[in-house]
Amino acid sequence: MGKHKENIKRNNHWNTQGSELDETQEPDRRSNGDYGKELARLQEEIAHLQAWVKKTGARIVIVFEGRDAAGKGGVIKRITERVSPRVFRVVALPAPTDREKTQIYMQRYIQQLPAAGEVVIFDRSWYNRPGVERVMGFCSEEKAQRFLELAPRFEAAMIESGIVLLKYFLDVSEEEQERRFRQRIDDPLRQWKLSPMDIESYRRWWDYTRAYNDMIRMTDTDYAPWWIVPSNDKKRARINCISHILSSIPYERVKFEEPELGKRQKRPDDFVEDTRIRRTVPNVY
Question: N or C: which end of the chain has fewer CB within 10 A?
Answer without folding.
Answer: C
